[in-house]
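name: query_chain
kind: protein
chains: 1
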Amino acid sequence: MRKLMLGLAVLLVAGGFGLAVEFPTSGETEAVGMMGAVKSLFTGEEAGKGFVMTARRGPYRVSWDKKTILEVHSLKPLRTLAKETMVHLLARKQAVQPTSTGGTFPPMLIQVRAIVAGSHFKPPRLTAKLREQRLEWVSGKLRPKSGGREFEVKGYLIGKSIEAPVLIVARKGGKALEKRMRVFVAGHLDSSERKNKKIAATEVLILEPKFKEYELTHVLAHRKPPVEKKPDEDDIDF
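structure:
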């Protein structure tokens, strides 16, 4: 359809009608997701509105607005979480198991790969490989057992030490950003100026350097903002 419209525009001009038809161009911005580090914060009139990020093929000027999600990630031991905290565990469910003495082990979450806490966190879809390993996301409120020596979620004991690290996801403002912080940015890249690449951020995650399971919890390699809807070419007015 676009080729037909462009051909029609050429014919109109060539035929002496003097009609210049402008069509919206595509590719002006690109949906991207990338990791980098904070090089510097915007200053002056732009203070509090963004930062310069060093990254592959960078640097980039990253800006945000009121709709941008700004998250800070940190790690805490499982034992420090408050009762009833909503947690999300990537683990395998194990049903009641008999013991050698005639008793039973309660239902448990075993092979725990990651634990995340935060009201805004939404577990990603499972990959085929994780499903083959019978892993799944289990979400629920944390409840202490045995005087705080164990914890359970949805009736399943957590098969991890109470010292196990939990990724805490909290939404905060841009004031949490500091130089040299490791970040992930999703947004729309404008690279029309080669030496002044800009990203209008939809999401900025301040990453926890000690957390090694981001590809399980956030799938950063494939994380990008929603594609911006462009005008339907069939609806272009002449």
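note: Residues 2-14 form the longest helix (13 residues).
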